[in-house]
Amino acid sequence: MLMKKNVKAGLVLTICPYLGLKDDPGTSFAYPNPANLCFHCRVPAAPLLEHQGACCLAETHPACPVFGREPQQPFPSNLRFGGGEFRSARRTPWRWIALAVGALLIGFALWQVLPARPAGQVPVSPAASLTPTSASTPSPAATKLPGLALPSTKTPGAPAPTLEPASPTPTDFPPQEHALEVPVLVGEQPILLHRVIEGEQIVLLTRRYETSLEVLEALNYSPPAPVFAGRVIVIAPGLMNVDPNLPPFDPYQVIDPEIGVGELAGKLGVDLDRLKYYNRCSGFCKFVSGDWLLIPRLRTPTPAAATPVPSPTPTQLPPPGEHPLEVPVLVGEQPLLLHRVVEGEQIVLLTKLHQTTLEVLEAINYLPPAPLLAGRVIAIAPGLKVVDPNLPAFEPYQVVETGISAADLAVKLGADLALLKYYNNCLDSCQLVKGDWLLVPRSK
């Protein structure tokens, strides 16, 4: 998940302008990654992943000790990720000359010492003379290296073996760091654990990591909302659609000074192979105090859905001239209402309460619905799960005049009169009074 610094300005403003990749300083990963380098120092270096998450990729990056100093100073060693500086691999020419001269001298010395052989004679080593010639020597078995695909040795036409992705061989995984913000690669999908910081909201997290609310709900064994400072949640960067092959996870921090993976699996009551697979654990790996792990769980059956509340009939609509909050206006067969946010409400809870989605809320609100602030009024379409292209975006408006006609108000607000009347159940001669709340249709 790479990010160009000149794209998506609303998101990039939170990323340090000096963060980039080795071959492309103008691009960086949008989440902590060892490939992200700081270029505001003498030699570009990779900051600690914790420092990237808390500073480099956040709005607080101007407070970084490297950000405000001269660029030609060395990168602080206490902030460097595993010796993150990179240097040129070039060698000076005199080293190559010395190696060439040395090789020539060794070759000349061997030519002087070894006896000459008659023409056509093939040398036979003692070891070779003892090797039977009737059978070919089998080649050594290839060693499987992490990240490298070996040539297939199966017979053509033979049925392919069934692979079990949850039970990989121990040699599949290189050493894995078990820390917050450090991705674990499951197949080709990175998964990480993120600690929520003060002020973060779930909608902003989905945009930062280019994922969706549905994926967050599917990956977290406990509902991801509400989010609050200090909570740890599971995130799959770049995954927009739910992957049915991924289980839900519980975040877990090791408290034992040292514990083997088998003992931990028994302690937590989880499958050993799955615990090893989703944490890239090879063989009889051990964990130490402070390690953060993904604990795979089985999704509990979804309880039977409650009987939905029937949509209001036309007789339930407010009469002309009465337009309060929380009272639906029926547009065709779809109810629309205006809701005032109360203290502590979060957008995820609103979507569940009104059986709608974040995408629908974003589509029908002229101003982005997030972040939610107590007292703010937003438009909601109860029961609507998919964006309706026939619905415009709306702006909530409260009448301040003692009395005003729909026609005069349309002129005042620069809105289409017919649409204003249609979306507010307003008859031809309706009069609006002070305190009425209206849905003002807008074009996005």
Q: Could you walk me through the main structural features you see in this protein, from its secondary elements to its overall organization?
A:
With 444 residues, the chain is of the alpha+beta class. It folds into three domains: 2-79, no CATH class; 170-296, no CATH class; 318-442, no CATH class. Helix content is 21%, strand content 16%. The strands form eight sheets. The chain has a three-stranded antiparallel β-sheet with strand order 5-6-7. A hairpin with a 2-residue loop joins strand 5 (184-186) and strand 6. It is elongated, with a radius of gyration of 33 Å. The model is unreliable at 6-12, 83-92, 117-171 and 302-318 (pLDDT under 50).
Produce the secondary structure layout.
Blueprint: E1 2-4, H1 9-12, E2 19-20, E3 27-29, E4 37-38, H2 49-56, H3 93-113, H4 126-129, E5 184-186, E6 189-195, H5 202-208, H6 213-219, E7 232-235, E8 249-253, E9 258-260, H7 261-268, H8 272-277, E10 286-288, E11 292-296, E12 329-331, E13 334-340, H9 347-353, H10 358-364, E14 377-380, E15 393-398, E16 403-405, H11 406-413, H12 417-422, E17 431-433, E18 437-442
Antiparallel strand pairs: 1-3, 2-4, 5-6, 6-7, 8-11, 9-10, 12-13, 13-14, 15-18, 16-17
Provide key terms for this protein.
single chain; 444 residues; alpha+beta; elongated
Tell me how many strands there are. Answer: 18
Q: How is the main sheet built?
A: 3 strands, antiparallel
Outline, from the CA principal axes? Answer: elongated
In the predicted model, the low-confidence regions spanning at least 5 consecutive residues are 6-12, 83-92, 117-171, 302-318
Q: Describe the strand arrangement of the main beta sheet, using strand numbers.
A: 5-6-7
The helix/strand class is alpha+beta
Total of helices: 12
The span between the termini is 28 Å
What percentage of amino acids are in beta strands? 15-25%
